[in-house]
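Q: I have two molecules that I believe assemble together. Could you output structure tokens for the complex as a whole instead of separate predictions?
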Amino acid sequence: MAMTMRSITAVVRPFVVGVVFAFAILPAVATDDPLPSWNAGATKQAIVDFVMRVTTEGGPDFVAVPERVAVFDNDGTLWAEQPAYFQLLFALDRVKALAPEHPEWQTQEPFASLLKGDVKAALAGGEHAIGEIIAATHTGMTTDAFAAVVHDWITTAKHPTKDRLFTQMTYQPMHELLAYLRQNGFKTFIVSGGGIDFMRVFSEGTYAVPPEQVVGSSGKLKFETEDGQPVLIKEPALDFIDDGPGKPVGIQMHIGRKPIAAFGNSDGDLQMLQYTCIPSGTHFCMFVHHTDAVREWAYDRDSHIGKLDKGLDEAAARGWTVMDMKTDWGTIFPPE
Amino acid sequence: MAMTMRSITAVVRPFVVGVVFAFAILPAVATDDPLPSWNAGATKQAIVDFVMRVTTEGGPDFVAVPERVAVFDNDGTLWAEQPAYFQLLFALDRVKALAPEHPEWQTQEPFASLLKGDVKAALAGGEHAIGEIIAATHTGMTTDAFAAVVHDWITTAKHPTKDRLFTQMTYQPMHELLAYLRQNGFKTFIVSGGGIDFMRVFSEGTYAVPPEQVVGSSGKLKFETEDGQPVLIKEPALDFIDDGPGKPVGIQMHIGRKPIAAFGNSDGDLQMLQYTCIPSGTHFCMFVHHTDAVREWAYDRDSHIGKLDKGLDEAAARGWTVMDMKTDWGTIFPPE
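A: Yes, here they are, computed for all two components at once.
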């Protein structure tokens, strides 16, 4: 729900023509390397060093297991976010699917333009138009009904240029990193601007992150009884935006302690990294830098989606790790 | 923060003269009984049967480990709540402690009456007065500063009639139940009307429930930078009341799946039990019934605090378990 003016422009731009990269799938081999998709180099070494330090009992940087909290942004950090946030693509698909039940949409903006295939005109209404689309596709139903709709979409819809399921648009190196941290006593959380009820449908199956470890944007919920059954209705009022300064707030609300590791990719993650890595203590902060226009996408300071500008400057000033996708990742996406 | 008119009357009533019960502390003995403080009987049997059923692989009621979510109310369920919610006693103590910094309180209600020892007059202002007290004692500081204040109080303050630390006003049988469920693959959550930032200070040490598994009432938070350090300021605006119909909402917001076991003691827990036990499937719901005026307190349908009225009727109609403190618990409080 953290769709802003920045994302609108991203959507109306002609969809980036993605080059489907037929990457070689290496046979599974026994290896001591917990991060086989990460190329050797300073980034990989920094991650391994950090994990060694916090897990070395008696060492100066040892961190007790309950305090080993790691937080991950989702869009652009765990899965791709081009040519538009995937949750917005879901919403647009839902408008088309729901149109037969809403004959009034044929003449009512932003739906009329959307149904004619004119996304640019539909989103000309800015945040109000986005709000209308989110309300029409994400609210007015029970949480269970919404989860079923998301499940149907996430298991069938394909990325517009890569022709892959969206769960296959996740990053193989980040899957390995999540698993590596968990093997070392970390509890891994997603802290994303995406909708909490949207992400929870696939977070456990895709990332092995259970619903209770997902923090996201949310709308108001209302408890009701329908046909004798207690249900929660998703109401059309925004409750919380888990982006920018909202991320440390979401972390406190849901986790209740400071993370010791934070991973993001945009300025919307900057406060989360500040909250994690400015206080004294052992910690690790990393930005995923999208530098690979061939295998994925390349964008940063001037991007309308996933803009990384202040974050790059602050990372340089504070010595945070900036991962370079082109050189640091041997593989981008998991095998199909 | 879920202080309502009901609780006000409870506070202004003369504090119940508690009989300090010098219970026998049994020596620790090796036993196969996971619930030694629970007397043999239908309640204990129902709990053990439920755990056996959900953990029997291949059985009709088997529940996979990730779905074994159990939720517990705190006030009156995990620890006592008489003669007033302990968090309100904390707030009253804080008013006294902060008075030297607030000379204006000598003439400003509700503080003036409180400082004269006249709790009844102080709370005559109803919810507005309570709100003033909560705002003065729970907000306008960082989350870290608040946690430090709660820590100081919870490790030193004594219950007004039982003369015990409040963490020793917890129920020994519930400690055993929490541990028993966890040993059987359950994830245990606190879902309480109490303040989330208040409970998290002692939830891990007292109940072995980590901060990220505590759901409670909360105020708004604001991210700021103070002297170069990122902090979260507790603002004087209420954000969420985790009571009554708010409990299923809090469960969805924080946990994201339906519990299969719910434990409460008052009508404020009714919707949480409905949400857990009305849908089809394997589940267990229990009310703690305060029936022991000698060792603890006895109250239910007419109580101004922890009122259990509709809940008793619905439990009878639906076959939920109603635990009887006087007969079901061999021990109430843990050894000092």
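A: One point stands out. The longest strand of chain B covers residues 214-226.
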